[in-house]
Amino acid sequence: MPNYFYTAKSVDGQTKTGNIIAEDSHKVAQILKEEGLILVKTVLPDENGKNFLKFFLPKAKISAPEKIFMVRNLWIMTATGLSTIKIFDVLSTQTKKKKLKSSLLDIKEKINKGQTLSEALTSYPNIFSELFVSMVKIGEESGTLEEVFKTLALQMEKEHELKSKIQGAMIYPSIILLTMLGVGIIIMTVVLPRLDTFFSSLSADLPLYTKFIIGLGKFSQKNWMLFVISPVVLVFAFMAMIKTKKGKRVLDTILIKMPFFSLLVKESNCAFLIRALSSLIASGVPIVKSLEISSKIVGNFYFRQAVDTAAEKVKKGENLSGALREYQNIFPFGTIEMIEVGEETGKTSVILKKLAEFYEQEVSDAAEKLSAAIEPIMIVILGVAVGIFAFSIIEPMYSVLGTIG
């Protein structure tokens, strides 16, 4: 059995660390609970050397389409009346990913040994989110697993569709920027240095901007390693920065205040949040627990802060709309008022579902408009860049030809 290094907290808030030999992290949590401690984190000894690399590199995840396919099959097979063990046996044969296959088989074994489905799913938080597990648990308790899987499949499809449209809007500008960068590098490192030799042989008097571009080309030729390594270092530094709390907050502040992007950021985060809340509340998850789970769905720091604060206020007896009102500046106009209507009519989950559908459509339209607006801007930028390079070459050539004439 593995030897886990653990970090735990006592009832009075003191942090304690140590080692425990156990089957898995859940067993560690049980042992510590018996000692009056709450587990915060476990680390296997062989993971310590990998932590630095994991800080920079993203974890290998199961893709969204694979998850959607799996949950749709869960819904269909549950509806047909198959046993849970048989369902996971079938799911494991359908997937080609080794990691997912082994996870599904392990879940099947855990259920076979007496664990509930929700308990077995908690062993794989990278595959099954807290929202997923909470809804499954409610489905088990209420006997509505089929409806829960249907809701989860729909939610995952909507989220994937929304993310795909936002990413799609960014593809064209990225291609233009990369093309412009590639053309600029070729001109500065290959074309201009050769022309400089030609101009120098004729003792031509070059304009200042041509001298600057040629000088930059010569510098990049001599220091090409700097130009190769610098972007890589900058990317790693950026990834490291956004993994810190302060860095993520700075990035989220820029995005939520940036022209053109601000409305897209607000509506997309609002859509993810409201869709999650709607699904959880409709499944019977208490409002406070729904808020705590939903705060982990949204990516923006300010939305997460708003939901966490709202959860604390709702615990004290305040209604959801009142708890969110102080954050009205980050929610699109009318959102909190519609939530208030839902609370007054007792149809909060229905109103939230309609709001989620509305904002998902709004984000889809906004992404298309943003892409359409960026295209001409990028073409103008590309044209200006090409014009500068062309003019810096053509003008001195005309001057030289005039001198020869």
From TrEMBL:
Gene3D superfamilies per the UniProt record, alphabetical: Type II secretion system (T2SS), domain F (1.20.81.30)
Source taxon at top rank: Bacteria
GO cellular component: plasma membrane
Assigned keywords, A-Z: Cell inner membrane, Cell membrane, Membrane, Transmembrane, Transmembrane helix
Annotated ranges, domain Type II secretion system protein GspF: 71-193, 274-394
Predominant cellular place of this UniProt entry's protein: membrane
Bilayer-crossing regions: 170-192, 224-242, 377-394
Membrane topology: Multi-pass membrane protein
Subcellular location per the Swiss-Prot or TrEMBL entry: Cell inner membrane
Protein family: Belongs to the GSP F family.
Name recorded for this polypeptide: Type II secretion system protein GspF domain-containing protein
Native source species: Candidatus Staskawiczbacteria bacterium RIFCSPLOWO2_12_FULL_37_15
